[in-house]
Write a structure and sequence with these properties.
With 132 residues, the protein is α+β, with helices and mostly antiparallel strands. The protein contains five helices and five strands; from the N terminus they run E-E-H-H-E-H-H-E-E-H.
Length: 132
């Protein structure tokens, strides 16, 4: 683990207080349960809110709204509200969001490819913990 020295204080690189906070927040937003799914889904195409909710599945309206607002605030998602009746709002990725989504998708694909090995490791671990 990398350690940095600030004056007389030696600090872990993940324990930099307010200095690291914005980076950690964005990482948490991008890798959150719903953030990952929203980003990956929006890689395919823009979605209306209800379409996106159906595509993701099992996400409450409140959580999807909060996730989209957070990703929009971070500059990853673009919200396009059209002044029509009934109102129409489309969500798409910004260039920054597309870059982040591609990274998240790569991680998701890696987990899919390696799930067999992960499952084997879990079984070995569980057997060792249960004394078998």
């Amino acid at each position: 683990m990398a350690v940095s020295s600030v004056g007389d204080v030696t600090a872990n690189k993940y324990d930099l207080g307010a200095e690291m906070c914005p980076h950690r927040q964005v990482l948490e937003h991008v890798t959150s349960r719903w953030g990952v799914l929203v980003l990956i889904e929006l890689l395919e195409r823009p979605y209306r809110f209800s379409e996106l909710r159906r595509a993701i599945g099992r996400v409450s309206e409140k959580m999807l709204t909060q996730t989209l607002q957070t990703l929009e605030r971070d500059g990853l998602v673009h919200r396009d509200a059209k002044p029509v009746i009934p109102p129409r709002v489309d969500y798409s990725l910004t260039d920054l969001g597309r870059e982040a989504a591609e990274q998240v998708r790569a991680l998701a694909l890696w987990t899919e490819r390696r799930m067999g090995e992960v499952q084997e490791a879990r079984e070995v671990y569980d057997a060792r913990r249960s004394g078998s």
